[in-house]
Write a structure and sequence with these properties.
Elements (H helix, E strand, L loop, with lengths): L1 E8 L4 E3 L6 E3 L4 H7 L5 E10 L6 H13 L4 E5 L5 H7 L7 E5 L12 H14 L3 E6 L2 E4 L3 E4 L4 E4 L5 H11 L6
């Protein structure tokens, strides 16, 4: 089995930047997490972007999509910031023959208390078991693209109910920069 990991930045890879406790996206922690997890499968890590998800543009999403479409790998895990992860997941829908799972963290992987390791493990399991398509593995669940939102007040991801679709679109629009560059 082979899994391609594509890193785009986000909280999972953030580090302290200065004495004012400012954060900046640093080197990816995925290799460290996989090594510590004693994984027994082949993988490669591709650092595609190093951005906070609020800075990811339509051009960045196209670049990610084009990379995945051209890649020979069928199993792909994308690490991504949580604020616009649902928008990127939707932008990746419709790529045939690929199982794509986006994940990230609500606190940096370098922190002693973080959800990063658990979320990476969930993403690795999901990418092996799910049918081809696009998913988000966060908050101990796997959500299909287009049916999930980040609930900022509860600090978790949750499924979008049919009656919540308009509300979800409004919330995601506030968190997602325009798709035009």
């Amino acid at each position: 089995m082979f899994i391609r990991f594509i890193t785009t930045g986000g909280t999972i890879d953030k580090i302290y930047f200065d004495a004012l406790s400012q954060f900046e996206v640093g080197e990816s922690q995925i290799a460290h997490i996989l090594s510590e997890g004693l994984v027994d499968f082949s993988y490669e890590i591709v650092p595609l972007l190093r951005k906070d998800s609020l800075e990811i543009t339509a051009t960045d999403r196209r670049q990610l999509r084009e990379y995945i479409e051209a890649d020979e790998a069928e199993l792909i895990v994308v690490t991504h910031g949580t604020d616009t992860m649902p928008a990127t997941a939707e932008a990746l829908q419709g790529i045939p023959g690929k199982t794509i799972v986006l994940t990230g963290a609500l606190s940096p992987a370098r922190f002693r208390t973080t959800d990063a390791v658990f979320n990476i493990g969930m993403a690795v399991a999901a990418v092996q078991c799910a049918a081809p398509g696009v998913y988000i593995a966060m908050s101990g669940q796997v959500f299909p693209a287009g049916a999930v939102r980040k609930n900022r007040s509860e600090n978790r991801f949750e499924r979008v109910s049919p009656g919540d679709e308009e509300d979800s679109a409004d919330r995601n629009a506030k968190a997602t920069p325009p798709l035009e560059d």
